[in-house]
């Protein structure tokens, strides 16, 4: 039983990696006609949920180096998608805001993203999606605990709002 669990755990790790890589490559191709990369979209999508976040905090939240994020923000700013504004209390802090152009782009991306997700989920039932989402949420919870130097909580169901 233990060797079977190890086998399936290893297989699951490879599948997660491959699905993630293939999804990134294909989504980049889908976004190409809109003149934006998946990395740029990812930053814009995060900013849209946290408009005005300081650039350094944005780098931490996205788990991206400050220099790499700075380059992405530079390109987004040159494209007219974001602005950087000095914080009212600390002028050294730069807050990042979406522009109207970015909001339009995000609405243009929505149907592309929706259609893409429909195609990659072809043949997958809602129940399969819910079960996989619960499993991945639990794995993420365990990984976050490990990242924080804690042991994962055994057997506790995470409240992922999927039911």
TrEMBL record:
Protein name, entry field: MarR family transcriptional regulator
Keywords per UniProt: DNA-binding, Transcription, Transcription regulation
Molecular function as annotated in GO: DNA binding; DNA-binding transcription factor activity
Organism of provenance: Ferrovibrio terrae
SUPFAM superfamilies: Winged helix' DNA-binding domain (SSF46785)
Domain HTH marR-type: 9-141
Gene3D superfamilies linked to this entry: Winged helix-like DNA-binding domain superfamily/Winged helix DNA-binding domain (1.10.10.10)
Annotated InterPro entries: HTH_MarR-typ, WH-like_DNA-bd_sf, WH_DNA-bd_sf
Source organism superkingdom: Bacteria
